[in-house]
Amino acid sequence: MAENPVEKRKRCGLLGVVFGRRGFWSKKCPADNGSHKSTTSSSNASTSTATTSNIQFTKSPGTEFNPRKFQENKVLPEPIQNQNQIQRPISKPSSNQAPNNNHQLGSNGNYQASNSPGPVQQQAKKVPREAIGLSGELESMILDNQKAKGNNGSYVRASSSNVMLFGNLGNLKQPGAAVGNQTTVQNNGYGNAGGGYGTRKTMEDERRTSVAPTPVSNNQDQSGSLCRAISTRMDPETLKIMGNEDYKNGNFAEALALYDAAISIDPKKASYRSNKSAALTALGRILEAVFECREAIRIEPHYHRAHHRLANLYLRLGEVENSIYHFKHAGPEADQEDISKARMVQTHLNKCTEAKRVRDWNTLIKETANTITLGADAAPQVYALQAEAFLKSYRHQEADDVLSRCPVFDVEMSTKYYGPIGYAGFLVVWAQVHMASGRFGEAVEAIQRAGKLDGNNREASMVLRRAQAVSAARSRGNDFFKAGRFQEACAAYGEGLDHDSRNSVLLCNRAACLSKMGKFDRAVEDSTAALTVRPAYTKARLRRADCNAKLGNWELAIGDYEILRKETPEDEEVIRGLSEAQKQLMKRRGHDT
Fold it and tell me: Are 147 and 75 in contact, with CB atoms under 8 Å apart?
C-alpha cells in the first residue's frame, strides 16, 4: 500500500537525530465484530479490549502434517445424493496390507478405535442428512484423509465445535502429542519463539508453495493442505465471527488463524485485515499489525476503525505525526483526547532529542521514561536512547533492564519497517549492552549484523573491534585460570579492560585471580568496581565478602553476606560465610572489652 503524504515526509525529530528514523508498540485495539464504520457503510461492530504484554511465545507440540502424502492419498467426500441420505465410498486397502487400528466415528459422535482385522470391503455407507452439516462434512473429510494415510491422526476440537487436524488451524495445544509439528506451527506464523518470529505464511501462501499436487481434474482446484480444503468450504464471514469469538475469549492465536483463513478466501475485505491486525497486536507482533492496517485502509480508504487502530499502533511505536494523521481520519472513532495524548508524547520526544544533543544523560533517562509511560511503550528507538543514557552514566545493570523490557520484533520485519540503517542503529546500542553485561558472544553477533546492514556506520565498526578484543581477552584469561596460571590470567583480563575499563565480568574475573594470588586488597578493589556498575552482580559481591573476611574486615564481610542471604537464602556457602564472620566479629569484640 502506498503511504500517505505524511508518512512519506522526510523523517525528522527524535529518530532523525538518533537513527535517521522515527518510531516503535500500539495499544491493542479490539477486533471488529461486524461491519465497520465508514462513509459508505454503517457500523454495528462491538468492541472488545484485552490487556497485552510483551510475551515470548512458544511453539505448541503436535503431529506433523505431510501435504504430499495427503495429496497423493486424499479421498474427497461425495456430494449429497438426495434430500434424505448421502453415499460416501470408503477407501479399500490393498490385500497385502497388515491389519491395523482404524478410527471410526461412533454413535456418540466421538472417534473410537476398531481392532477389526483384514481389508475393508468397499461399500456405500448411508449417513443421515442431519449428520451432514458443516461439522459432518469436516469430520468426514478428516476421517477419509486419515484412513487413506493409514495412520492414526491427532484430533482437536476447535471453539467452533468442528473437528480438525492438530496444527492446521491455529496454535491449539494438545497434551502428549509428538514434537514433529513444531515446525509446522511456527511456519504458519501462529506460534513464536522468544525474541523472534518464524517465517509466517498465510494459508494462501501455503497453498502456493506446497509441493506439486497430483492432478485430479482440469477444472478442480488443486489444494495444498487439508486446512485449505476445509476453509474454502466455509463462508468467510462465518470464519470472521468464529475469530471474533476466540479473540474475545483471549485465544488470539486461534483468532489469527481464522482471520487468515477468511482472508485467503476473500482477500479484498478490509474488516478481515483490520481484525487480523488486532489479533497480531494482542500477540505482540506490532509491526505486522501495522502492515495489515495499512492494507485495510488501502482496500477501504474511509475505514474509520482501521484508521483509529493504526493511529494507536503508530503512537505506541513513537511515530506521533503518523498517529495524529490517522486519528484525524478516524471519524467518530477518535476524539480530541487521543490527539492531545499524541501531542504530549511528541513534547517528551522533543525533550529526548535535545537531551541527547547536549549529552545530558540524566534528563534523557527521565524523558524517555515519560515518553514510554505516556504511550510510546513499543518504540525501540526510545528504549535504545534510554539504554544508551544508562551506559554513558555507567549504570550497566539498569541498561540491561531496559533491554529486557524492550519489545522484541522479528529481524526481517524490523529491517523492512525501519530500514537497514535504522535497525542497525538499534543493534549498535544493544551490542554494547550485551558486552557490558558479559554476554560477549551475543554482542559480537549483534554488532556484526549491524555492520552488514549499514557498512558505513563508523560506530558499528568501532564497537565490533572493541567487542572482539574484549571477548578474545576473556577467553584467554579463562583458559589460563583453568590451567592454574593465575598471573597470566590476570594479565589477559587486564588486556580486555584496556578496551573496556568498566566491564564488570572482566573486573570480577581479575579479582578471582588476585584472590588466588593472595592479593586480597586489590581483589576487593576490582570487586567493588564491578559492583559499582552492576549492584546485583552476585558473584562479585560474594568475592568481595570472601576477600574482606580473609582481610579480617568482618563488618564489611557481614554486610555483603547479609545482602546475599536475602537474594539466595538457600546458598550454603553464603550461610557458612555469614555465620563465620559473625562469630569472628563477636570474638573480636569480646577481646576488646
Answer: yes
Written as tens digits, the pLDDT of the chain (593 aa) is 444 544 444 444 444 444 444 333 333 444 444 444 333 333 333 333 333 333 333 333 343 444 444 344 443 433 433 434 434 343 444 444 444 444 443 444 444 444 444 444 444 444 444 444 444 555 555 565 556 545 454 444 444 334 343 333 333 333 333 333 333 333 333 333 333 333 333 333 433 333 333 333 334 343 333 454 455 567 899 999 999 999 999 999 999 999 999 999 999 999 999 999 999 999 999 999 999 999 999 999 999 999 999 999 999 999 999 999 999 999 998 888 999 999 999 999 999 999 999 999 999 999 999 999 999 999 999 999 999 999 999 999 999 999 999 998 888 999 999 999 999 999 999 999 999 999 999 999 999 999 999 999 999 999 999 999 999 999 999 999 999 999 999 999 999 999 999 999 999 999 999 999 999 999 999 999 999 999 999 999 999 999 999 999 999 999 999 999 999 888 999 999 999 999 998 888 776 65
DSSP string for residues in 148-194:
HHTS---EEE-TTS-EEETTSSS----TT--GGGHHHHHHTTSS-BT
Provide the whole-model pTM: 0.63
Cα dihedral sign, 22-25-29-32: positive
Angle 454-460-464 from CA coordinates, rounded to 5°: 125
Instruction: Give the count of alpha carbons within 13 A of 121, CB side only.
Output: 3
φ/ψ bin of 325: left (φ > 0), alpha (ψ from -120 to 50), beta (otherwise):
alpha
Helix (H, G, I), strand (E, B) or coil at 85: strand
Element (H, E) at 88: strand 85-89
List the grid coordinates of 532: 559499582
The DSSP code for 130 is G
Q: Is residue 152 within 8 Å of residue 142, measured between CB atoms?
A: no
DSSP state of 110: S
Cα gap 360→207, rounded to integer Å: 55
Residues 6+ positions from 244 with CB-CB distance below 8 Å: 31, 32, 33, 48, 255, 275
Supply 64's cell numbers: 506433523
d(CA 65, CA 54): 30
Query: Is residue 231 within 8 Å of 257, Cβ to Cβ?
Result: no
Pairing, β 163-165 against β 155-157: antiparallel
DSSP string, 345-358: HHHHHHHHHHHHHT
Q: Which residues in 394-439 belong to E strands, given as ranges?
A: none
